[in-house]
C-alpha cells in the first residue's frame, strides 16, 4: 500500500476515500503482523525446550502470556481490519490496492493458523477452564461432527470422580449440543439433537484403569448415531488397546443445529455465566488435555478466546510423547493447504554435487497441489501434482522456454490417499530423472546448468512468490501429509525450520479423507461393501443440485432394486417397487439439503432437513431372503445399469448404519 501513487479517475472522491481507508487498513495490518512474532518465536523456543527435556516453567508462562495477548489482540484487531478491507473492496479500488488487500488477508490467516496448530497440552486443576474459538462454518458440523483429543489422568494421584471434559453448544445449555464427561468411572459421550439427551458410556475400560499417559479419544456423530473411541498406547511395544462404543438417538432428528451467535466451545469446565445441560453439570476436569481435531481441521487449546483460573506457574502442561501411537511412529507433517515449510540455505546439511537428489514421501487426495518449489530471481524449479499426476517444471532462462517432466499413465497417479515415495535426481551433466515408488516416471536431457538455488519451499509458498511468475500463479498448497523430506539423503525436521508456518505434526486419517464429491451427470461412485438395504437400512447424505432429476443412491440384487432419487424436484425412495415420495418441496434449488432414509420390518421412512417427513407401512409380502452369492455393489450419484438419470451436483457427508 505504501507504493500507491496519486491517480485520476472519473470518480476521484470515491477513490480518494478508498485510499484513506486503505491507509488506515495498512496501519491495522501492521499491528496484526506484530502479533504474529511473539506467538511464533515463543512457540518455537518452547517446542525446543520440550524436545530437549529442558522444560522451563518461566518459558512456558511467557509463551502462554504472549500467545494469549497476541490472540486477544487478533480478536480485537481482525474484525475491525476485515470491515475496513470490505469497505475498500466494495469501492472497487485499483489493482494494486486489491493486491495488497489479498496480502493482508493472507497474513491474518497465517496469524490465526499459528494459534490453531500449537500442539501442547494444558493442565486443568479442577478450577480452570478454557474457551476455544468455535468453528467458523457451523454448517459443516450439521450432518457429521467429530472431535478428537489427547487426555491424561492419573488415578493414583487424583482419584477418579464424575467430571466435565468438554462442551460444544449453546451458551445457555439449551437446544443441540455435544459433550464429553467422566461419569461412574466411565468415559461418556453425550449429545442432544433437539429432543432428548443421548449418553454413550464406554464401559469396556473404566477410567480408573487407564495408565497415567496421554490416551487418544475421539467422539463422532453421524446423523443421529454416535460413537466414542479410546486408544491406549503401549509404552514399550507397538501394541495398542482400542475400544469403541456405539449409540443412537431414539428419534429421527439427525442434524446438529446451533446458533452461531450463542455457540461456545469449552474445555475442562465453564465459568459461572455459562449454563451446562444437566448431563454435563459436573465438577471441573483434573488432568491434562491436548486438542487434536474438529472434523477435518487441526485445533488447539491455544486458539482460545478466554482462559479461566489457569495458573501456568502452579500447573505446567504435561509433555506428550508425539510418537507414542502406531500411526505416528514415524515423524510426519500435516499440511492443510494454507501453510508451507521453508528450508533456507539447504546446503548447510549437504552440498550440491554433480548429482543432486531430493526425496519426499507424501499422501494426498488433492488433484492439484505443490510438492516443493525453488525460486531465485527469474529461475524456478517446481514439483507439483497436476490432475493427480506428478509434474516437474523448471526454467533457468532457457531460450526454448521451461522444461517439463510428466507422465499421465494411470499407474503413476498418486492422489489416492496412500503414501508414495517421490524422487528427483538432477544430474548436472546428464539427465533430470523423476521417480515415484522407485519407478521411472520421466527423464530428460539436462541442458548442463547448475541449480541456482539456496532455499526450498515444501507444500506451498507465499502468494508473493507464486505470483512472481505466470507459471506459478495457479499453484495450490498441499492438502495432505509428508512423512519425510531428504536432500542428498539428509533428512530435515520441517517443524524446526524457522521459515515454516501453518503445518503441524502427525497425519490423522481425516486429513486424507474426502467427505464431498461432485457428480457431472455421467459419473458415479461404487462400493462392494456388504449392505442389506431392502430389509434393514438407515443412511444419510447431503445433496445440492439445480437439476430436477438424478439418482442419489442405488443398489441392486438380481432383479430387485433399491434407489433414492430426485424425480421432478421431489425425493423418492424405491424399495422393490414400493415408493415413498416427498412432495412438500422442490429440492433442486441449489441449496444443501440433508436426506435420511430408513427401512425396517415395520415401515419405510424418508426425511429431508429434519422437517419434510413421509412414512409408509411396509407390505407384509415385501420381506424375502437374498442370495449371498450375488455381487452387491452400491452406488452414489448414479449407476452403470439404472434407468434413472445420473445425478448432477454435490453429495457430501454420506453414511450408512
UniProtKB/TrEMBL annotation:
Q: Which Pfam families does the UniProt record give?
A: Laminin_G_2 (PF02210), Laminin_II (PF06009)
> Where in this chain does the entry annotate a coiled-coil region?
none
Q: Gene3D superfamilies from the xrefs?
A: 2.60.120.200
Q: Where is the Laminin G domain?
A: 121-318, 330-507, 514-657
Q: Which SMART domains match?
A: LamG
Could you name the domain of life of the organism this protein comes from? Eukaryota
Cross-referenced PANTHER family, in alphabetical order? LAMININ SUBUNIT ALPHA-4 (PTHR15036:SF47), PIKACHURIN-LIKE PROTEIN (PTHR15036)
Q: What is this protein called?
A: Laminin G domain-containing protein
Amino acid at each position: 500500500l505504501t507504493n500507491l501513487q496519486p491517480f485520476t479517475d472519473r470518480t476521484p472522491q470515491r477513490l480518494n476515500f478508498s485510499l484513506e481507508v486503505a491507509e488506515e487498513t495498512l496501519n491495522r495490518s501492521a499491528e496484526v503482523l506484530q502479533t504474529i512474532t511473539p506467538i511464533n518465536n515463543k512457540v518455537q523456543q518452547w517446542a525446543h525446550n520440550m524436545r530437549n527435556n529442558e522444560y522451563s516453567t518461566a518459558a512456558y508462562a511467557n509463551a502462554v502470556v504472549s500467545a494469549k495477548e497476541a490472540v486477544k489482540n487478533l480478536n480485537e484487531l481482525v474484525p475491525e481490519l476485515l470491515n475496513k478491507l470490505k469497505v475498500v473492496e466494495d469501492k472497487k479500488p485499483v489493482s494494486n490496492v486489491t493486491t495488497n488487500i489479498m496480502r493482508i488477508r493472507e497474513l491474518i490467516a497465517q496469524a490465526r493458523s499459528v494459534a490453531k496448530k500449537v500442539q501442547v497440552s494444558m493442565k486443568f486443576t479442577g478450577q480452570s477452564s478454557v474457551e476455544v474459538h468455535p468453528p467458523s462454518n457451523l454448517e459443516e458440523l450439521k450432518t457429521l461432527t467429530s472431535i478428537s483429543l489427547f487426555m491424561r489422568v492419573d488415578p493414583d494421584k487424583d482419584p477418579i470422580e464424575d467430571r466435565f471434559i468438554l462442551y460444544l453448544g449453546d451458551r445457555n445449555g439449551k437446544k443441540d449440543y455435544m459433550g464429553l464427561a467422566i461419569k461412574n468411572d466411565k468415559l461418556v459421550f453425550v449429545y442432544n439433537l433437539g429432543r432428548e439427551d443421548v449418553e454413550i458410556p464406554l464401559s469396556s475400560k473404566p477410567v480408573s484403569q487407564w495408565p497415567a499417559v496421554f490416551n487418544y479419544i475421539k467422539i463422532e456423530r453421524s446423523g443421529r448415531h454416535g460413537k466414542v473411541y479410546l486408544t491406549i498406547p503401549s509404552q514399550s511395544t507397538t501394541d495398542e488397546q482400542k475400544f469403541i462404543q456405539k449409540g443412537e438417538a431414539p428419534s429421527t432428528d439427525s442434524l446438529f443445529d446451533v446458533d452461531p451467535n450463542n455457540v461456545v466451545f469449552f474445555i475442562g469446565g465453564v465459568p459461572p455465566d455459562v449454563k451446562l445441560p444437566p448431563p454435563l453439570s459436573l465438577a471441573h476436569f483434573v488432568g491434562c488435555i491436548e486438542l487434536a481435531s474438529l472434523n477435518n481441521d487441526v485445533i488447539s487449546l491455544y486458539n482460545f478466546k478466554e482462559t479461566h483460573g489457569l495458573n501456568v506457574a502452579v500447573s505446567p502442561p504435561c509433555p506428550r510423547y508425539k510418537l507414542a501411537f502406531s500411526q505416528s511412529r514415524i515423524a510426519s507433517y500435516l499440511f492443510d493447504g494454507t501453510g508451507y515449510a521453508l528450508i533456507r540455505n539447504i546446503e548447510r546439511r549437504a552440498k550440491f554435487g554433480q548429482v543432486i537428489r531430493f526425496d519426499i514421501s507424501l499422501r494426498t487426495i488433492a488433484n492439484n497441489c505443490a510438492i516443493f518449489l525453488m525460486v531465485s530471481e527469474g529461475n524456478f524449479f517446481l514439483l507439483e501434482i497436476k490432475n493427480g499426476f506428478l509434474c516437474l517444471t523448471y526454467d533457468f532462462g532457457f531460450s526454448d522456454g521451461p522444461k517439463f517432466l510428466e507422465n499421465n499413465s494411470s499407474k503413476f497417479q498418486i492422489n489416492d490417499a496412500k503414501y508414495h515415495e517421490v524422487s528427483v535426481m538432477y544430474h548436472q551433466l546428464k539427465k533430470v530423472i523423476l521417480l515415484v515408488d522407485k519407478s521411472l516416471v520421466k527423464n530428460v536431457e539436462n541442458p548442463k546448468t547448475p541449480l541456482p538455488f539456496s532455499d526450498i519451499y515444501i507444500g506451498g509458498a507465499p502468494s508473493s512468490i507464486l505470483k512472481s511468475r505466470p507459471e506459478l500463479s495457479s499453484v495450490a498448497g498441499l492438502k495432505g501429509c509428508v512423512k519425510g523430506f531428504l536432500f542428498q539423503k539428509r533428512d530435515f525436521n520441517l517443524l524446526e525450520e524457522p521459515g515454516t508456518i501453518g503445518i503441524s505434526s502427525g497425519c490423522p486419517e481425516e486429513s486424507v479423507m474426502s467427505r464431498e464429491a461432485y457428480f457431472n451427470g455421467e459419473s458415479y461412485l461404487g462400493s462392494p461393501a456388504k449392505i442389506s438395504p431392502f430389509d434393514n437400512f438407515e443412511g444419510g447424505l447431503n445433496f445440492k443440485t439445480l437439476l430436477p432429476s438424478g439418482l442419489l443412491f442405488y443398489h441392486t440384487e438380481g432383479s430387485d432394486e433399491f434407489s433414492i432419487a430426485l424425480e421432478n424436484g421431489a425425493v423418492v425412495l424405491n424399495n422393490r417397487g414400493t415408493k415413498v415420495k416427498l412432495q412438500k418441496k422442490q429440492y433442486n434449488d441449489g441449496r444443501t439439503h440433508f436426506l435420511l432414509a430408513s427401512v425396517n420390518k415395520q415401515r419405510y421412512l424418508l426425511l429431508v432437513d429434519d422437517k419434510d417427513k413421509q412414512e409408509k407401512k411396509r407390505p407384509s409380502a415385501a420381506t424375502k431372503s437374498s442370495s449371498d452369492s450375488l455381487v452387491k455393489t452400491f452406488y452414489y450419484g448414479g449407476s452403470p445399469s439404472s434407468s434413472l438419470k445420473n445425478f448432477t451436483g454435490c453429495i457430501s457427508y454420506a453414511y450408512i448404519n
